[in-house]
């Protein structure tokens, strides 16, 4: 088991929850599971006031991001100077959000937060219901809905250190190997020396890749080339399908990786290489005939701007960099909470990666998130690497931003090391524990989902803490109640047995794939049936 990090106190408590009277007109959504999605919790409705895949090399300017230090925002070239100098340090407030600092769309008049909230609350359950039956590829946060709402220029290449490779294919592969070494050495000129200097868009593309990967802290990058194929119309060129393996930290890619899921993640591309001046260079970058299901990843398809804190690297798509000064301190606070539970779970993190997506990126990164109610995503890349994505157009207020980021980091620390992506039958536990972490220091009683839980008890009281996953024709609030009940289940196990034993149970189920009964006996010393019966009664009393 890796060493555990120091445990720091949780962040200050968020604003108090609404009163039951205020809740009369509210509703919630939940989270989905095709990766690990996040639904937003049910809360009262306030009165309303009046990416391009890597295969497509666009003619874009250079990214311009540079190496950065803690708390420094590193924008792409061309970003306004005012953004570059933005200060990082204060958490988001409703006033920030209302003024457009967070969540306001480009020219869409969303500065009126009350109006935005009124629209938001009618989103929810339907998406969750559909998503809960999908095998987990990530984790998403969905939004709540109101009560009663309808369902709605290169340098000279380095000198050769040995004999010239014998064949054109060997010579081309040697160039790719030298390019990968230049990336890890922080040598941008050496990296770009592998690219045809006469193709400005392609050079800009590779400059962006270099700066994105360096900004994310790349520690391993290597090409695994396939067969070289002739290029029609150019007898000297080669087309090679390559798998690009990458790691952000040794923790993400341990040396003893024995299974495919534990090995480094990768992207699949096709490069065309031709000789220029007696040396092969990349003259075209195209799609692989068999891309990885994660593609396109943020760093391969978008120029990113970075803000780096002590525990978190926040990367924003171009156009979303204005949110970096608000999101970074919120993410740093969330990381303090996540680190505490990573220590309990035995999954300490070197750092956390959070990507801020505009609508274009939200609909393309990792294959695109089709669920319009999803507002956050935790995407496992391999057994120990998980990316977090936040949909900035839906971050309408400070509480939504905080609980979304904290929830997704909760997925990171509880799914790191899992032998498989996730099992559908364990969705209640993975989402319940993410809600448990996401709403801290409040418990389930302070979550807006409690109204949907009460709705569920009034309709049909659950007989187990493993809630029945709603079907596609279930009422909209059913998905939200699923998340709420899962949160209550985590609260109950913590109250009765303590957090340390709760996280032992979570680890045994989610990462070691034990049965509920075996995990319960090992963690709590009693059969799961005993835990289940006691917690159903406990939840009924607490939620009434």
TrEMBL record:
Region (Disordered): 1-76
Ranges of compositional bias, category Basic and acidic residues: 34-43
Biased composition (Pro residues): 7-20
Skewed-composition ranges (Low complexity): 45-58
Name used for this protein in its record: Peptidase MA superfamily protein
Record organism: Paractinoplanes ferrugineus
């Amino acid at each position: 088991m890796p060493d555990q990090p120091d445990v720091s106190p949780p962040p200050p408590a968020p604003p108090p929850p609404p009163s039951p009277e205020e809740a009369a007109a509210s509703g919630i959504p939940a989270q989905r599971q095709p990766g690990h999605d996040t639904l937003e919790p049910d809360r009262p409705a306030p009165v309303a006031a009046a990416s391009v895949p890597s295969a497509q090399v666009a003619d874009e300017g250079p990214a311009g991001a540079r190496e950065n230090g803690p708390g420094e925002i590193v924008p792409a070239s061309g970003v306004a100077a005012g953004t570059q100098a933005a200060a990082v340090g204060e958490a988001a407030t409703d006033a920030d959000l209302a003024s457009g600092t967070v969540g306001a769309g480009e020219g869409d008049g969303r500065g009126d937060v009350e109006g935005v909230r009124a629209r938001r609350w009618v989103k929810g359950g339907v998406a969750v219901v559909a998503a809960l039956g999908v095998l987990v590829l990530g984790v998403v946060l969905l939004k709540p809905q109101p009560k009663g709402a309808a369902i709605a220029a290169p340098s000279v290449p380095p000198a050769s250190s040995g004999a010239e490779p014998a064949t054109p294919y060997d010579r081309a592969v040697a160039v790719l190997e030298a390019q990968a070494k230049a990336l890890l050495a922080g040598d941008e000129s050496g990296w770009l020396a592998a690219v045809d200097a006469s193709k400005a868009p392609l050079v800009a593309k590779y400059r962006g890749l270099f700066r994105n990967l360096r900004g994310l802290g790349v520690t391993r990058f290597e090409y695994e080339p396939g067969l070289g194929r002739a290029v029609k119309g150019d007898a000297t060129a080669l087309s090679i399908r390559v798998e690009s393996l990458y790691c952000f930290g040794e923790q993400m890619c341990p040396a003893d990786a024995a299974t495919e899921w534990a090995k480094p993640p990768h992207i699949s591309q096709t490069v065309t290489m031709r000789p220029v001046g007696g040396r092969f260079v990349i003259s075209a970058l195209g799609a692989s005939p068999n891309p990885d299901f994660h593609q396109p990843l943020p760093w391969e398809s978008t120029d990113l701007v970075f803000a780096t804190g002590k525990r978190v690297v926040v990367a924003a798509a171009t156009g979303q960099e204005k949110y970096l000064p608000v999101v970074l301190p919120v993410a740093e606070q969330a990381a303090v909470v996540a680190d505490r539970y990573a220590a309990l779970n035995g999954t300490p993190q070197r750092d956390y990666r959070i990507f801020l997506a505009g609508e274009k990126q939200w609909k393309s990164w990792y294959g695109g998130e089709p669920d319009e109610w999803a507002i956050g995503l935790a995407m496992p890349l391999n057994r120990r690497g998980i990316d977090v994505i936040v949909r900035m157009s839906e971050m309408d207020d400070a509480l939504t931003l905080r609980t979304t980021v904290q929830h997704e980091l909760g997925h990171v620390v509880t799914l790191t090391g899992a032998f498989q992506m996730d099992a559908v039958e364990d969705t209640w536990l993975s989402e319940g524990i993410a809600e448990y972490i996401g709403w801290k220091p409040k418990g389930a009683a302070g979550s807006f989902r409690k109204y949907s839980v009460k709705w569920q008890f009034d309709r049909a009281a659950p007989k187990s803490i493993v809630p029945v996953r709603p079907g596609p024709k279930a009422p909209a609030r059913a998905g939200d109640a699923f998340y709420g009940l899962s949160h209550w289940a985590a609260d109950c196990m913590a109250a009765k047995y303590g957090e340390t034993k709760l996280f032992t149970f979570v680890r045994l189920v989610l990462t070691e794939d034990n049965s509920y009964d075996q995990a319960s006996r090992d963690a709590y010393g009693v059969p799961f049936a005993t835990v289940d019966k006691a917690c159903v009664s406990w939840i009924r009393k607490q939620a009434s």
